[in-house]
Design a protein that fits this description.
Layout lengths: L13 E3 L5 E3 L3 E7 L2 E10 L4 H13 L5 E12 L1 H16 L6 E3 L3 H9 L2 H4 L1 E3 L10 E2 L7 H16 L3 H20 L1
Parallel strand pairs: 4-5, 5-6, 6-7
Antiparallel strand pairs: 1-2, 3-4, 3-8
Helix pairs in contact: 1-2, 2-5, 5-6
């Protein structure tokens, strides 16, 4: 797969590690694009600070008129929060809207796969446990700064997307959406 000529560094937040040193606690993202086949690899503990960078990457991917496929590799993900799940749901919604079928998620980790099934991602994506993609062939996703208002709007949009999957996910995430809407009106 040819690698997109994009560079950038996703900065991970430092937190106290063993022996008082600094360790890395957040997730990272890498991607590639080969003639419209996009690959996104998420690693570590994938949390909402990564959402602006992922959202920006998806904006660029969706502008790609050659886009035909999307594969998300979660083989190195330890966990993923609901905001980032909502960002990933955007991929399925976009491909479906363009008549391109369901994207694939590679998830050999049983705990991560269970989470994906709980939020009904098996309805939006092909969930597979195939071997992971070679991360050396992927470019880092560039970090994106977001002010508090923009981050709140992004988190709200992601959770609305999760609510829209089906009645069960609506029940699970509606209280979060309501709280975020209240907070947004207060800003």
């Amino acid at each position: 797969m040819a690698i997109a000529e994009k560079t950038g560094v996703f900065s991970e937040s430092a937190c106290p590690g063993e022996n008082g040193g600094l360790g890395m606690a957040s997730g990272s993202a890498r991607y590639a694009n080969d003639a419209g086949a996009w690959v996104l690899r998420l690693a570590g503990d994938v949390r909402h600070p990564l959402a602006p960078a992922l959202n920006d990457l998806l904006d660029r991917a969706f502008e790609d008129t050659a886009l035909t496929r999307f594969v998300i590799d979660l083989s190195a993900a330890e966990g993923i929060d609901s905001t980032c799940l909502g960002i990933l749901a955007r991929i399925a919604n976009h491909l479906s809207g363009r008549g391109l079928g369901r994207p694939a998620i590679i998830s050999p980790n049983a705990d991560v796969t269970t989470l994906l099934r709980v939020v009904c991602f098996d309805r939006l994506f092909h969930l597979v446990a195939d071997p992971p993609i070679d991360p050396q062939r992927l470019e880092p996703v560039a970090a994106q700064a977001a002010d508090e208002r923009d981050m709140l709007a992004l988190i709200l949009e992601a959770h609305r997307r999760l609510c829209a999957i089906d009645a069960r996910t609506h029940t699970v995430f509606q209280d979060v959406v309501t709280a975020l809407e209240t907070e947004q009106r207060g800003n």
